[in-house]
Amino acid sequence: MRKYLILTMLLLLLNSSFGYYFEYIKITESNPTKTITFKINKVENYTYKLSFVHYGTIKENMQVNIYLNGNLVYVIDDSNDASPAYKKNVSIDITDYLKDGENVLKVDGVNLIGNGNYHPYYVLKDVYINEPTKTPIDFKLMIYTLLIIGFLIYRKC
Q1: Cα–Cα distance between 149 and 45 in angstroms, integer?
Q2: What are the tens digits of pLDDT across the range 37-93?
Q3: Do 53 and 7 share a domain, yes or no?
Q4: HEC states along the chain?
Q5: Sorting pLDDT into bands at 50, 70 and 90, what band is 16?
Q6: Do 48 and 92 reside in the same domain of the chain?
Q7: Model pTM?
């Protein structure tokens, strides 16, 4: 009985997690463009956000452009203080650019030209798009269920 309660609790927790996680995107002078294709079932009246931490070693006249479905959604240039010591958290509303179905996220380094001692790069870390929970179970009911299951597991111990 206890293992079934734990399994039910885990399934509810997994079902409540949300988002598209792209992890780590790095562009360099030798690989200045990264393109990721993904599918999403867009929900009406929900605000989608693209979030990430960014840092790198770009200098004057260099920039990193982030596109979603061909639309420029964010620009990083040397004025953003891009050194690894100054990691920045960003969250961008992408609701208007996101399509139901297949989407393309593109990170494009512009003019990333180095020399013998300097090699420009840029990193987007912990890149994800939030997504609402898609479950027939109401969120409050799911929390109550998790609490009850937790109590039942505690009583059986």
Answers
A1: 32
A2: 999 888 888 899 999 999 888 888 899 999 999 999 999 986 655 555 567 889 999
A3: no
A4: CHHHHHHHHHHHHHHHCCCEEEEEEEEECCCCEEEEEEEECCCCCCCCEEEEEEEECCCCCCEEEEEECCEEEEEEEHHHCCCHHHCEEEEEECCCCCCCEEEEEEEEEECCCCCCCCCCEEEEEEEEECCCCCCCCCHHHHHHHHHHHHHHHHHHC
A5: very low
A6: yes
A7: 0.71
